[in-house]
Amino acid sequence: MPKLTFAMNVTVDGYIAAPGDDLGWSGGEGPDSSPGDELFQWWSDRVAATGLSLYGRKLWEEMSSHWPTADEQPGATPAVIEFARRWRDMPKVVSSSTIDQVGWNTRLVTGDAVTEITRLKAADAGPMDVGGATLAGAAMRAGLIDEYVLVTHPVLVGGGTPFFAAMDSWVNLRLVETRTFPGGVVLTRYETR
């Protein structure tokens, strides 16, 4: 059965987006913005190693508004070009009842997201990532997430969209990796036990 991972940039106080869905604290997009090349390359390599990425609507809209053509923009760096191509090529599933079409190697699912994630895990689609607070929260509550990766940025935003959803019971974790990136960004990776 493939591993399902929830990996996101997160603030020290536990948010993946500040109030108003503001992501400015994460340094923007591309390797020329803080926290720099090393972290951007880590995310790019992660996309290359992912067999299937599962998106909720909001994160899908954020990603699909930029990455499909990022490699065609004036001044696109080699790292941005590589990431954009990797992102377009990676198979994706978007779970939404409010949009009616997707593109870029993506399939839309309008039914129950937990049922679809369970089916995909049983089909062994390879390593899978889940992104977006609502979709990841549903997968958390269903006990479907095998690994949590927090890329913690040294900032407090005081509110917004939390990384972790309200849970019905405890989930015991085992720390499997820590890594520090320039600018004080710390990656922690946990497996469920």
From TrEMBL:
InterPro entries: DHFR-like_dom_sf, RibDG_C, Riboflavin_Biosynth_HTPR. Residues 2-187 form the Bacterial bifunctional deaminase-reductase C-terminal domain. One of its GO terms (molecular function) is 5-amino-6-(5-phosphoribosylamino)uracil reductase activity. Pfam families: RibD_C. One of its GO terms (biological process) is riboflavin biosynthetic process. This is Dihydrofolate reductase.
